[in-house]
Every structure is written in C-alpha cells, then in structure tokens.
Amino acid sequence: MSPQTAPKPMIDRSHHVGGSWHWQGFTQMAQYKKIVISEANGCWLTTDSGKRLFDGVASLWCNVHGHRHPKIDAAIRDQLDRVAHITTLGMSADVTEILASRIVEITPGDLSHVFFSSDGSSSVEAALKMALQYWHQRKDPRPKKTDYLALSLAYHGDTTGSVSLGGIKFFHQLFAPIVFTPVRGPLPCSYRLPDGVTPDAACDHYADEVESLLKQHHETLAAVVMEPLVQGAAGMITHPKGFLSRIRKLCDKYEVLLICDEVATGFGRTGRLFACNHESVTPDIMCLGKGLTGGYLPMAATVARPHVFDAFLAKTSESKQFFHGHTFGGNPLAAAAAIASIDLFTESNLVESIDAKASLLRSSLDPIQGHPHVGDIRGRSMMVGIELVQNRETKTAFDSADLFGQKVCQRATELGVWIRPLGDVVILMPPLIATDDDLKMVGKVVCQAIQEVVPSL
C-alpha cells in the first residue's frame, strides 16, 4: 500500500487525558485544574468536555488570524505534498526563500537579511550572538563590545542568553548563577512615574537615564535590547511616546546596535504591522516570532540590516560565517504557514481595522474605569493590560499571595473567556479577526469577573 493510499493514522484521544504526564510551562502542576482543548475554530476553543471558550489571549499572543483559517490550512496541506522538512544549513527550500523575501518586503527600512529559528527566545539568542560576532568581524573591529543594555523588568525569552537580559524576579532570579549580567536600564513606565516626573516629561526623563548609561558603558556595549512601545510580559508596561525613536538616535550617537524584540508586538498587535512603524524606527536587528506563522507552527526570525550581514562575508577559510544554527530553522511547513499569514495581512485591510477594534474593546471596559481596585488600563491597540491594585489613589499593589489576577482569570474562564494574568495585571490580547460582538462580549465578561472577584474591599 503506497503512502498516498494508506489509511490516516488515528489517535486515541481519550488515552491518559487529564493526567499529569504533560509538564506545562509557568504552571504550578500541584494546583492546576487541567483544561484540555480538543478542537478550535476562529476565535473559539472547545474543551474535551464540550465547553466553548473564547481565546482571549490568542493562544499566548500568536494566533492573529484565528484557528483553522482556510488559507493557512490550505498552504500547509499543499506544502505537505512537497516537502515537510529539510535542513537550512547549506541548503534551503524554495518556500523558505520566498518567505525570507516577503519578510524583507514588510519589515521597516533596510532590514534585509533573515535568519530563521524556532521560537522568540531563539530569535533573541541569535540576535545576541549576531551582535557580538559583528563587532569582532567588521572592518574596524571593536572586540571589547561584549555587553548588552536591557530595560528593567525586561523579558526576552527563556533560553540562557535571553534569560540573562531578563529583569523579572520570578522568571530570572533563580538562574543567576548560569547567566550574564546586562547593564540595566530604566523601566520606562507611563503609569508609575518617578517622583516629580510629569507625563509630558517622562520620555525625556527615561531617555536621559539611558543616555547616562550609554555615556558610561558604550565602549563595551554591543547592543541595546528592548521591546518597542510595550513590555508585554512585564505587565503591558507602556512606554511614553517618542521613547523608541530617542533610543534609536542615542544608539547611533554612541555607536551601539539597537535590537528590537518584536516577538510580542509584531504582526499588527499595536495597530501597525510592527511597533517600530509607529515612530519610523529601523533597528539594526529585529526579532520576530509568535504571529509570524499566525500561531500555527513554531517559527521565528532574526532580521538584520546590510551593515550587520556584511561583516559575516568572507572566504570560508576565514571562519567568519555566523556560528549559530537550528535544526528546524526555516522549516518548509512553517514557512508555508507564514507566507499565508503575511498574505492575509497584505491582501486585506486587517491592520487598518485594528485601531477601531481596539477602541471598541477598550470602551467595553468602561464599567470598570472607576473601579476602586482598577489602577490602570493600558497598552497599545489590541495589547491590553488591566492592573488591579489595593489602592487606586496611591497605586499600592495587592499582596501577591492574594492572587487576585489569577482569580479574575479563573472566573472569566468560568464565564466563557480564556485569559491569563501576569501577576495582578489581567491581559487581553484577542485574535485580530475578533468581531465587534466578540470584543463586546470579552469586555462584558472581564468587567463582571473583576466586579465579582475584587469588589470594593
């Protein structure tokens, strides 16, 4: 029997479902009430018990076009009839070449050389090594440039190098013995401002802090690494407008590369295709992931400008090639999904519709605007964080042991909307295709969950 006519393999989907064999990330398995999804369609998930849940965080911020989109499904099926996987170390797939050209077309400025990996953490890891090797190999080498500047409460992933950049205690502190220490920049938060700093002066204040560090460390700094506009895992920390463009200018002034981590902010989340578009910034290196394939398959990309790429060009005998590579980097199935996802952006007015959707989502949260324990509703466009606080006037946080964020999300799930908190910040990041009715429903459920779980204490 040929592979084309063999019966489709069947999976016994009842086997071991509900056990603890699957060890899940960032999940306390001792207290976890398992949720198992058996199928999904559009913005909706269906559990193995038949309960429907709205995917309020787009399956960890990546499912921009919803589940089972016919165009992406078809692209993957078509690619299955061609080739599922080959290495990109020394060869490539035609579909991967096409994807690289498409990424160059849509990314800002002269970003023009695409290195593929499997996830956002890996894309950042590649960027760190790329920056360091660049400074060693360019025409006027600067081998002392081996350090990095990262913002406070940074999160850039979970691999060793990306963890080193991190500044979130519970994510990173335990691993201090095996990581390097970056130069730590400010937390450019628009909600909790330093004493005496007004909202109008915040951008200047934070940029001046970064410049002070660059003056002191620029001779040893390879790059500034930052999430543009919004620090997602930090709790949707939202930067003052203009901060990103100021950092770009400072990096040029002090001869330091700028690495922008757009793993979370890219592909429409902030109301532009990339967050850097808001301030007309082209980083030296851009990291992409999550929404690249529409949330279908693991794929990430590290995209560099020509001056970075050119430092790696030489005779093979000189050993200047990029000393980094991934088994599944540029995987053809993932590349097919990514091309279809990019097509959906370029063939429709999806990006142009995002700000209107975001406005509707935020207006649906009006019932909690004055809630005594809702300190801030922030973010950019379809990236929304609702911070719960003990005291709205003083911005005093709750005791973390109270788990109010988690309890609100549990209640929202009972009401039919699946969301996850970051501490006491309730995160909303629905698929970009969510309808007006979907978004109104999400807002209504979240307001009800907050009002029930965190009444006026």
Written description of the protein model:
This protein has 457 residues and is an alpha/beta fold. Helices cover 32% and strands 15% of the residues. It folds into 2 domains: 37-68 and 353-453, Aspartate Aminotransferase, domain 1 (Alpha-Beta Complex), CATH 3.90.1150.10; 82-346, Aspartate Aminotransferase, domain 2 (3-Layer(aba) Sandwich), CATH 3.40.640.10. It has 13 helices and 17 strands. Helix 12 (404-414) packs across helix 13. It is globular, with a radius of gyration of 22 Å. The model is unreliable at 1-6 (pLDDT under 50).
What are the SSEs and their pairings?
Elements: E1 37-41, E2 44-47, E3 52-55, H1 58-61, H2 70-80, H3 94-106, E4 113-117, H4 120-137, E5 147-150, H5 160-165, H6 169-172, E6 183-184, H7 202-217, E7 221-226, E8 230-231, E9 237-238, H8 243-253, E10 257-261, E11 285-288, E12 300-304, H9 306-310, H10 332-346, H11 350-363, E13 374-380, E14 383-388, H12 404-414, E15 417-418, E16 421-422, E17 425-428, H13 436-453
Parallel strand pairs: 3-15, 5-6, 5-7, 7-10, 10-11
Antiparallel strand pairs: 1-2, 2-3, 4-12, 8-9, 11-12, 13-14, 14-17, 16-17
The biggest beta sheet reads:
7 strands, mixed
CATH superfamily of the largest domain: Type I PLP-dependent aspartate aminotransferase-like (Major domain)
Q: pLDDT below 50 for ≥5 consecutive residues: which ranges?
A: 1-6
% residues in beta strands: 15-25%
Structural class: alpha/beta
Site (Participates in the substrate recognition with KAPA and in a stacking interaction with the adenine ring of SAM): 26
Modified residues (N6-(pyridoxal phosphate)lysine): 290
Pathway: Cofactor biosynthesis; biotin biosynthesis; 7,8-diaminononanoate from 8-amino-7-oxononanoate (SAM route): step 1/1
Protein name: Adenosylmethionine-8-amino-7-oxononanoate aminotransferase
